[in-house]
Design a protein that fits this description.
Helix content: over 70%
Order of helices and strands: HHHH
Structural class: mainly alpha
Mean pLDDT: 91
Radius of gyration: 15 Å
Largest sheet: none
Distance between the termini: 23 Å
Number of domains: 1
Number of helices: 4
């Protein structure tokens, strides 16, 4: 899965700013965090896939693995899914 486009990153940025406001960070700070998160996910996708046990590693689609990753991250953050 490729990194997001500039427009997609901007859409996430706008959503987060609407949802959470800025607090002590600026719009540019939030955009930088979105960009870094997207890049980190791209840089570490292979490591995540390597960590998965079989048969899930080979049987699940990229979309399914991504959804699992997101749900686990949301749950860890205390967000019910």
């Amino acid at each position: 899965m490729a990194v997001l486009t500039t427009q997609q990153r901007g859409e996430i940025h706008a959503y987060l700013c609407r949802r959470f406001g800025y607090g002590v960070v600026t719009k540019a700070d939030v955009q930088a965090v979105v960009n870094a998160t997207d890049q980190w996910q791209d840089d570490n996708a292979a490591a995540f896939n390597t960590a998965l046990p079989e048969p899930g590693k080979s049987a699940l689609s990229l979309t399914q693995k991504t959804i699992i990753f997101c749900y686990v991250a949301l749950k860890r953050a205390g967000i019910e899914v």
